[in-house]
Write a structure and sequence with these properties.
The protein has 552 residues and is an alpha/beta fold. It contains 15 helices and 15 strands. 47% of the residues are buried. It comes from Streptomyces varsoviensis.
Length: 552
Amino acid sequence: LRPAHIKPRLLGHWGTSPGLNLIHTHLNRVIKQRDLRALCVWGPGHGGPAVLANSWLDGSYSRTYPDVSRDDTGMERLFRQFSFPGGVPSHVAPETPGSVHEGGELGYSLAHAYGAAFDNPRLLVACVIGDGEAETGPLAASWRSHTFLDAVHDGAVLPILHLNGYKIANPTVLSRLPEDELDELLRGYGHEPLYVAGDEPLQVHRELAAALDHALDRVDDIQRTVRAEGAQAPATDGTRPRWPLIVLRTPKGWTGPAEVDGTPVEGTWRAHQVPLSEVRDNPAHLARLEEWLRSYRPEELFDERGRPLPQVLACVPEGDRGLGASAHANGGLLTRELPIAPLERFAVPVDKPGATLHEPTRVLGELLAQIMKDTARRRDFRVVGPDETASNRLGALFTVTGKAWQERILPTDEHLARDGRVMEVLSEHLCQGWLESYLLTGRHGLFSCYEAFVHIVDSMVNQHIKWLKTSRSLSWRAPVPSLNYLLTSHVWRQDHNGFSHQDPGFVDHVLNKSPDVVRVYLPPDANTLLSVTDHVLRSRDYVNVVVAGKQP
């Protein structure tokens, strides 16, 4: 190994990668053994190296990018382009085959996992949650997403909480909790936690294999039982299933340099990024790097042309079963046109301008209810919002579907249903995350919110806009249904709630973004709103913001 072999600037993140490699390998085994249709959401922020490497190993990367072949030539190209100008990011991104999740911003992985599972009854969605991102507000809210997951019509989510102990420079909260307190927390969230821990590879392999098998057997049992009961089984007693969750505790930077220049690295926060940073100028570091790389015995893994040997690929799923090849991660391939009835059926008669009063969003509710009815069998349309569907005058939806709910139902409750396709939770982050992934896996939807409070997802919509902009430049990514906002209770009609509910700034925020991707509509009356909604629901690869009144 010579300095000329090393990039002038080393970028990337090693600390999380060993755990992701481990999980990817074991998911491959169960996918192939059980013939699963699976998707994985990779939450740790800069876990790109592991996911890129594994998609290259399973062949999906080369099928997506034929110039990155599965041999030494392709391997070199893969390495050169990583975290390099004009190349691919250091995190999981649109360029990564098999991904519906942008790993550059933390906290949304579990919401995205559930969004992919809704109305996908045969899909298993594994979700790797980094212990750093587990400290974020959106992730904390996401743990209860199974309250809205119907085991009859939806797929399963398997959270894998990876506790490697550290963020960039600090310990993580969950990794330092006493074991009994962590267990109580996860059980309080409604999960059955399974624990795998250690630093001896063969032991951890055996324990993780056993935990995965146990978890998937449990998922099979839940789905078989609930589906045998049928969609109409009462949920009034709140006896929902307790879904499995895996807690994997392994060292940060596992199998990397134990120490560098006398300072501990493996198992500490120092392993987060590049553990050997002076390899071009420091001969001792260069020698240490070579020793480290040779410790993986590459001559036992690759032939003389750099192709993975058969035993390396023995557990790798073939064709579209591979995690990097799932059609659900390229949802435009699965998207069907939304059936939208002729608008004349819902339009307000206009005999004379300005002569009659109507509540525009109440009129729109009739159209949305018809769409919900017409998609009842195929189940590929949802409306999400933070407890404001009725307030925003969209109550007609409840004549054809209920609000998704798996907990107890009391006699005084209204419109709650185990199989409901309106989703209300008082977390705009969850609404956004669920819907983003629902759309990216090929379905349609609408996010209804008060105008002043949609700001809570400013950062999330930034990332989604970037995703769409990047996806448009990738010929292999098929266009997906647009992310559509309906913002009502808007600034000009907040005489009831007053100043706290007045803020039209989301329009400013969105219009700062790429004009290739964003659109804002300000329909002044009911019929214009019908026409605009028809347009945005048919569109692809946009973020559409529709601001409309709900008052007469």
